[in-house]
Design goal:
binds magnesium ion, Rossmann fold, about 300 residues, binds adenosine-5'-triphosphate, two-stranded antiparallel ribbon, 13 helices, 9 strands, 7-stranded mixed β-sheet
Length: about 300
């Protein structure tokens, strides 16, 4: 493994070398309070594209429902002990270590969710320091050491310990929204709630906002217009009005598109590129992977 020097978390992390290329390790939370917007699909496929670009990638499924765990073919792990929630319990599972809760897949490593994660989260909720444990016990020891990138999938909730802990630990976010007016209100809630709270102590960066599951209707156009008005510097090129217009693409044809292949890949337990290497949305996941590498959208 490449030589790594650790910096204080408040400072930028040291560069590690990866086959001669400089890599700045980065952890990212994929979150939105709203359900079904594509958090899990985006986590799996951005992780897959980062891994395809030669990086060492870990995905952490903090959603007690375990959709990511299932969607990457690890349904059995969901019902098995040990699991990462036990790592966070103070003094209770001393014999459980990081290696015991990491599962290797063909594409990237995963810390699966578990059937007991919900009750574990409820127990941890009573511990005032619990929101720090994800950082102290998982992200800090692994990021830049064993992994270049750690992606954390979260549940849809405005009151989730794991989501708060993930934002705290990663300080970077990708936020998927759906192409509907109310999704922008949800986005505002997230920004004024969990992100604002974490930002009192941490420099939280939104790396990208992604409008997902786009059909070709006027709602897509409206949401893309509104995102461009308020968050232009957080938008990948496939959502940026100037780029779309310069390509002659109508706004209602922008965003991450609704594709049957995306749904089928999840059902088969594989990343999209494994299911159909020719799918036209893969390039958007590739762009999101570049945004994660670069620490934000570059103009
Ligand atoms: N671009 C897309 N095209 C087609 N289907 C999609 C797309 N994005 C997501 N889906 C499907 O929509 C459903 C919801 O997506 P996903 O599970 O990623 O959302 P989520 O935000 O993680 O949901 P939850 O809040 O339940 O965790 C899944 O069945 C998924 O396969
Ligand atoms: Mg999900």
């Amino acid at each position: 493994m490449a030589q790594t020097t650790y910096c204080d978390r408040e400072q930028s992390r040291a560069l590690v070398t990866d086959g001669g290329t400089a890599v700045e390790p980065r952890a990212v939370t994929v979150a939105n309070n709203k359900g079904g917007v594509g958090k899990t699909v985006i986590t799996i496929n951005v992780a897959d594209r980062l891994a395809a670009r030669g990086h060492r990638v870990l995905v952490l499924d903090t959603d007690p429902a375990g959709n990511l765990t299932e969607g990457i073919g690890l349904k059995d792990s969901y019902n098995e002990d040990p699991h990462f929630g036990q790592l966070l319990a103070e003094g209770e599972f001393e014999d459980v270590g990081l290696d015991d809760v990491i599962v290797e897949t063909e594409w990237f490593d995963v810390m699966p969710s578990n059937i007991d994660l919900g009750s574990r989260q409820n127990l941890l909720d009573q511990d005032r320091q619990a929101f720090r444990y994800l950082e102290d016990k998982i992200v800090e020891p692994l990021l830049g050491e064993r992994y270049d990138y750690i992606l954390i999938d979260t549940e849809a909730s405005s009151d989730s310990l794991f989501m708060d802990a993930a934002i705290w630990a990663t300080q970077n976010m990708i936020i998927p929204v759906e192409p509907a007016e109310e999704s922008l209100r949800g986005l505002q809630g997230l920004m004024e709630g969990q992100i604002a709270d974490a930002s009192q102590h941490r420099d939280v960066q939104i790396l990208a906002l992604v409008v997902n599951r786009c059909g070709s209707d006027n709602e897509v156009k409206r949401v893309i217009e509104e995102l461009n008005e308020h968050f232009h510097d957080k938008l990948p090129s496939f959502i940026r009005k100037d780029v779309l217009e310069s390509e002659g693409t109508r706004l209602q044809h922008g965003g991450l598109r609704e594709r049957v292949a995306i749904k089928r890949a999840w059902k088969e337990g594989v990343p999209l590129a494994e299911y159909d290497a020719e799918d036209d949305q893969i390039e958007h996941f590739d762009e999101l992977a570049r945004i994660v590498e670069q620490g934000g959208v570059q103009f």
